[in-house]
Amino acid sequence: MRRQQGFTLIEVMIVVVIIAILAAIAIPSYTAYLDRAACEDGKSLIMQAAANADRRRAQNAGSYVGFNALPQNTSEFSIAVGNITATAYTLTATATGRLAAGTLTLTAANVRGGSLAEQCNW
């Protein structure tokens, strides 16, 4: 009697179904992980800029005037500052990567907002 070599069609189909089930679970989880990582990148960038603004205020007799020390843009977000007065500023991190077409904002009064605020738990 000859020995069986290889796999039957049923065995191959079972393996394919198992791989498909694992992929159906793993891919959405991985996508959510990448989105969370991108959000954290934007939040980190904007908090670095806020720390630089507070440093400027401490060195400039309590005024934000002349503040322009922004951290370097990342692959996910670019940062800009606007509405600078002696007592206020507005930081805006604009998504340029995975979360394109969204923003996170922060003011000197620690008011957080932007179109990505809810998605990023900002």
UniProtKB/TrEMBL annotation:
Subcellular location: Membrane
InterPro entries: N_methyl_site (IPR012902), PilE-like (IPR031982), Pilin-like (IPR045584), T2SS_protein-GspH (IPR002416)
Biological process terms in GO annotation: protein secretion by the type II secretion system; type IV pilus assembly
Lineage top rank: taxon: Bacteria
Membrane topology, from the record: Single-pass membrane protein
Transmembrane segments: 12-33
One GO cellular component term: type II protein secretion system complex
Listed name of the protein: Prepilin-type N-terminal cleavage/methylation domain-containing protein
Entry keyword set: Membrane, Methylation, Transmembrane, Transmembrane helix
Classification via Pfam families: ComP_DUS, N_methyl
UniProt keyword Transmembrane, yes or no: yes
Signal peptide, first to last residue: none
